[in-house]
Amino acid sequence: MYRIAIVDDDAGQCAGLHDMLRELIPAELDCGIDMYASLGELDGQQVDIVFADICLADGENAIEEVMQLFSDRPAVQVIYVTGHVEYCSAVYDTRHIGFLVKPVRRQELADAFHRALNRLCDLREQPFAVRFNNTSYVVRPAQVMYVESKLRVAVFHCENNGTVRTYMKLSDVAERLPSRFHRCHSSYLVNFDFVNAITKNDFVLTDGTHVPISHLRPHRYHAPLSAVRHNQ
Does the domain at residues 128-227 carry the CATH identifier 3.30.70.890? Predict the structure, then answer.
């Protein structure tokens, strides 16, 4: 799941951007959109993409706030939105992936949004390290078939019967993995690249493993079926 934050002290502008983004989100992609009046409200919040108006209430400057909030969170994709084109140079003091001028045009919004999604996808494809019992292990998302949560331990089930364990909530694991991983159960994430079939109660993986489904929502799982493997 990707978490999107829209930050604008103008409720009408915020709602308009929200509606346009809703139309742009692919049907198979699980995205949550939250609206805020200031960047300070994002402190400590999990977020993947931020659409930030530069000039906010009480003299708040989003450029300065972004530098403070996300300097140690390089995965957060920042897209500035402003009615003041004079800031087009100042924003380069911060890491960002887009600069949109109000009134925002749908195509320009779509281009910036898809750049952010592609960047996030690339980042989440990268191997990452986890620790378990004083040992570090590398998780390679492309090799993970599904993830199972047992008590407080996340178990990554990989190809060729390999497993990697770490102490991590399943919700936090989901934030580290590409969008093709879907949470189909309170204790399971499944990688659609390894799904052969979907029944009423479970996913059947390429190695014959059955991963349970506890809250199947057909509209979410219909689109990725084109990518489901069929080994005849």
Answer: no
Tell me the pLDDT of the chain (232 aa) as tens digits.
Answer: 789 999 998 899 999 999 999 999 987 777 889 999 888 888 878 899 999 988 877 666 777 788 788 877 788 899 999 887 776 776 767 778 888 999 999 999 999 999 999 999 899 999 999 999 999 999 999 999 999 999 899 999 999 889 999 999 998 898 889 888 988 999 999 999 999 999 989 999 999 999 999 854 443 444 444 444 434 3
Which residues, at least 6 apart from 194, have a Cβ–Cβ distance to it below 8 Å? 145, 146, 205, 206, 207, 229
Q: CB-based contacts of 70: which residues, under 8 Å, 6+ apart?
A: 50, 76, 78, 95
CATH class of the domain whose range is 2-124: alpha beta
